[in-house]
Every structure is written in C-alpha cells, then in structure tokens.
Amino acid sequence: MTDAITQSNTTHKSVSIMLTPASAENYGVIYGQKSILTAFKEVGFTTLFLSNQSANRTFTDYFAQEADYSKYFRFFNENTNNYDEVLLTELQHCMDSIAGNLFIVLYTYGSHFNYHERYPEEFSRFRPDNFIKVSRTNRDMLVNAYDNTILYTDHFLHRLTGILQDTNSCTAFFYSSDHGEDIMDDRHQRFLHASPNPSFYQLRIPMLMWFSPVYKEYFPTMVTQAFSNHMQPVTTNTIFHTLLDMAGIDTPYREPGLSLLSEQFQVVPRMYLGDHDDPVPFHRAGLKPEDKIMLETHHIAY
User: Fold this and answer.
1) Cα three-residue angle 168-159-208, rounded to 5 degrees
2) What pTM did the predictor assign?
3) Segment 6-27 mean pLDDT
4) N or C: which end of the chain has fewer CB within 10 A?
C-alpha cells in the first residue's frame, strides 16, 4: 500500500487497533470485545502468537493470551537480544508439527531503538553505524543504523515469503508497522515516536500483503481487489477487517468497507487517536508546516 498511515504513534494503542475492530473513531470497543485471534479460533484455526518483544501488561499481551499457543523470545529481566528471525525458526517448527489451518501473529521488534542492536553484523551495509550517543552530530550514523534495520526487515519478509511458498499451500500474510520514527529529520529535532503530537515520519508506515500461488488460484477476485486498492489512502484500522476477508471469515464484526480485499472498500477521512482517545483528522493532529510539505512530497492524501 503506497499511502498508508497509522492511527496512533504509540505501540500499545496502534497494535490494539490492528488486532481488533477498534479504531480511532471507536477506540472504546477495545474494553468489551475480543481480538482477531478469537475470531480465527471460533472457525477452527489453530492460533499462535509469537513475539520478539517483551510482555509489558498492555492489551497486546491480553490479546496474545487468546491464542492457542503463545511464546515470547524477549524478557525484561534478561539480557536477551534475539533478532527477529528467531520467530521464523519457531514458525517453521509450528507449521511442521501442527495439522490443519493456522493463523499466526508474528510480533517483531523491527526498527525500535537501539537500532544497531536490531540486526546481525552481516546487515551492517550502511556505515558508519556504531554511534555511542544520540546527538545531532551523530545523525548520519543513526540513520545508517536505522536503514540497516530496514534492510534486515526486508530480509525477514523475504524469508517469510519463502517459508510460506515452500508449503505449496493456500497461504498469505499481511505486514504492517504500528508506527514510524523521527530521527531528527527537520529543525524540530524530534527523536523516536509516541510524542504528544505526531509527525509525518511517525505517521507514515509500510503496509503490504503477499499471496501464495495457490491462494491466487483459489481467490483471484480478492487478489485483484488488493492490487486495485494498493494506491488508496488507508490506515491501520483496515487490518482486522482485511484479515477476516483474507481467510473467508464472515462475522458481524467485519466491515466490508474497511477490507482492502472487498469490492465494497470505501475511502473515508483518515482519523488519528489523540492522547485522550479522541479521534481527530490526522492532518490536524498537530502537524508542523514541514510535515505538510512531506505529505505532499510523498503524495499522502489529506
């Protein structure tokens, strides 16, 4: 998807929106509804939640407990730094040992700071990337390290594609970041994410879908619809509904107008979840003039 943004620049809210029917417009439903893991369980899928992030008592962990099987590879009280590929090893094991339909959530660490801890040495392509402290004078090294994390994520997704395709089964995946990142990109010198007001860099995210040859053969109309929607302006609240469509799950909680695989998909004003859980048009969420310039430069509709 070429024009995708997040509905929240904070992980605990954004991931909750991705996993449930909640959105910036109706975030309160998160307190009374279960997640997509339960939806898949109720139609007979074995569900798994594999995480390379530590459990931190957020709704994400609460939803993870709905899965038939959950496993964490990072812990607050241990000095562990597994790279995201550890999830693929477990994924392969689960696919080899569990029969029937599987729904698997892979919760990666991605490009979170500290950037040069996110990838193995062989992915240190952009150099120098060995910064000691965060400062304006070290920005080039910070960006190099961040770019290396993107290179590693690309490798991770390439491996995931290969694992799924090698099964010769009807498989598909939906990938999205929960938020973007500031790396002192303009005169405001913002760094990281989750600031009270978002920036262009925190809002814009990668989002993509992949379908196996068998999936394309069985569901050509949905694949065609995905391609026809790939330039539409979308947000993270489409993920829950698109995944249900992807698996052919019919439920009153699925809104066809929010599914990227549906002919009924509708482009609507994109909202952002404010600090007080109130929805506001994302371009009115405190963006600076520099952010508006970036929106226009990258053809992000607003």
Assistant:
1) 85
2) 0.96
3) 97
4) C
73: nearest Cα among 130, 97, 95, 64: 64
How far lies 272's CA from each of 8, 133, 277, 293, 302, in Å? Answer: 6, 32, 9, 19, 12
Nearest to 150 by CA among 185, 115, 122, 178: 115
Residue 279 to residue 271: CA distance in whole angstroms:
6
Per-residue model confidence as pLDDT tens digits over 182-211: 999 999 999 999 999 999 999 999 999 999
Beta bridge partners of 3: 233
CA angle 76, 27, 49 (to 5 degrees): 40
Q: What is the largest CA-CA distance in the chain?
A: 54
Alpha helices (runs of H) in the chain, residue ranges in sequence order: 11-19, 36-42, 59-64, 85-97, 139-166, 200-203, 213-218, 220-228, 239-246, 289-297
134: left (phi over 0), alpha (psi -120 to 50) or beta: beta
Are residues 119 and 151 in contact, defined by beta-carbon separation less than 8 angstroms? yes
